[in-house]
């Protein structure tokens, strides 16, 4: 349980910024494609 909680906390810390970065990159590519 403790290991799982630690993994979940690490997952949140690692995955959320990655998702934000990927989302920003995708938005930038879409905006440059439509302009």
Overview of the molecule:
The chain is mainly alpha-helical. 94% of the residues lie in helices and 0% in strands. The chain has one helix spanning 2-34. The protein is rod-shaped and about 50 Å long. The protein starts with a helix and ends with a helix. The mean pLDDT is 84.
What is this structure's SSE topology?
Layout: H1 2-34
Treating each run of at least 4 consecutive H or I residues as one helix, how many helices?
Answer: 1
Global Rg: 15 Å
Note the gap between the termini.
50 Å
Largest sheet: none
What's the pLDDT, averaged over the residues?
A: 84
Which parts are unreliable, with pLDDT below 50 for 5 consecutive residues or more?
none
Shape: rod-shaped
Report the count of strand segments.
0
**Fraction of residues in H or I helices:** over 70%
Give me the strand/helix succession: H
**β-sheet strand percentage:** under 5%
Which class of secondary structure composition applies to the elements?
A: mainly alpha
Protein name: Orphan protein
Task: Describe this protein with a few key phrases.
about 35 residues; mainly alpha; about 95% helix; Orphan protein
Could you give a short description of this structure?
This is Orphan protein. This protein is mainly alpha-helical.
